[in-house]
Amino acid sequence: MADARSVAYVRTQAAPVLPPPALSDGALGWLRANLFSGPFSAIFTVLAVAFIAWVAPGLIRYLFIDAVWTANDGASCRSPEVGACWAYIGQKLPFFMYGSYPREWVWRVNMTLVVGAALIVWLLAPKAPAKQIGAFLFFVVYPLLGFILLSGWEKIGLPKIDTDVWGGVFVSLLVSAVGIVVSLPGGVLLAMGRRSTLPVVRIASVIFIEFVRGVPLITVLFMANFMLPLFLPENWTPDRLLRPLVGVSLFASAYMAEVVRGGLQAMPKGQFEGAMALGLGYGRLMRLVVLPQALTKVIPGIVNTFIGLFKDTTLVAVVGIYDFLRAVDTARLDPVWAGPNISTTGYIFAALFYFIFCFGMSRYSQYMERSLAKDRLR
């Protein structure tokens, strides 16, 4: 026993912490995990790098090095040796932003956009205080303020400006914002109606959802533009911009309803039973227990619908609305700025506009998913 005790021992101090292997930590570890995790991953990585190396130099040269940055007309942009004509974007930027809105009153558009952006940041910031006040201002006060500023009110010195001259970026943002704000609560109501035990409510919801989802958005826009006045009194004609707003909102609500319904069906039955065991009625059950969890589960689907809606706003041009893309398409017909490089530059600028907004929505949704996942793990 004495000999065994002299040989055996117990470590009295912790062993030093060894550094991780070089290929599993840091930049090399990230490359191995994301770009070279296997043979196919390595092959696709090499092909992607080769493609970027082939395309990037020409793209950089066209967009920046050979680009025309200052010019009074399109003469200097018509040469096949030059690149993008950013001078054209600078000259036409007011038209891209506001359409034919009177230039002396564009401060009203700017104020509407700035106030709306501030309220959206307030609502979307995770740790922002008093969000109930922000929601009231955004959903109740802001629409009235925006309507007064954009349309005008003679009593306070703002002349009336018809929607015929509205256009550009702010119309695209207006249509998409109205569609997004209306589609989420509308989709929730339709999803709940489709799952209702009342046959009339369920059948009506199913018919509406399937009918709207069964036709393209262009058809809905035409129906809203030409058929909506038939359901209203003869002495009240809907505004030309209000009609596509209604059509876009109804179309997005139908698609949103199926996304929300997927979240509701993914909810465990025990959540319903536990809420009912606590004595919660249907309204409080859905508002406090079910919907918060269901909507969290389908954040990717909700944001995907929002992104699709934002891009589909370009279709309002078929009913005569001058959205941003329509403004770009119209501006390139100016004979002073005619030319192939000029048209290409306009469409590149439009693509960047839509990409920035869609990518921003995508990144924010991913941030919310990670944040909510951390909360659930706690």
Would you spell out the secondary-structure blueprint of this structure?
Elements: H1 2-7, H2 26-34, H3 39-65, H4 86-98, H5 106-124, H6 131-151, E1 167-168, H7 169-194, H8 199-213, H9 217-227, H10 242-265, H11 269-277, H12 282-297, H13 299-312, E2 322-323, H14 324-331, H15 340-377
Parallel strand pairs: 1-2
Helix pairs in contact: 4-14, 5-6, 7-8, 7-10, 7-13, 8-10, 9-10, 10-12, 10-13, 11-12, 13-15, 14-15
Task: Offer a concise description of the structure.
This protein has 378 residues and is mainly alpha-helical. The protein has helices spanning 2-7, 26-34, 39-65, 86-98, 106-124, 131-151, 169-194, 199-213, 217-227, 242-265, 269-277, 282-297, 299-312, 324-331, 340-377; strands spanning 167-168, 322-323.
Features:
two-stranded parallel ribbon; mainly alpha
The CATH superfamily name of the domain at 175-331 is: MetI-like
Which topology of the domain at 175-331 does CATH recognise? MetI-like fold
Strand tally: 2
CATH class category label of the domain at 175-331: Mainly Alpha
- Radius of gyration over all CA atoms, rounded: 28 Å
Binned strand content: under 5%
Count of discrete alpha- or pi-helical segments spanning 4 or more residues: 15
CATH architecture verdict of the domain at 175-331: Orthogonal Bundle
Mean pLDDT: 89
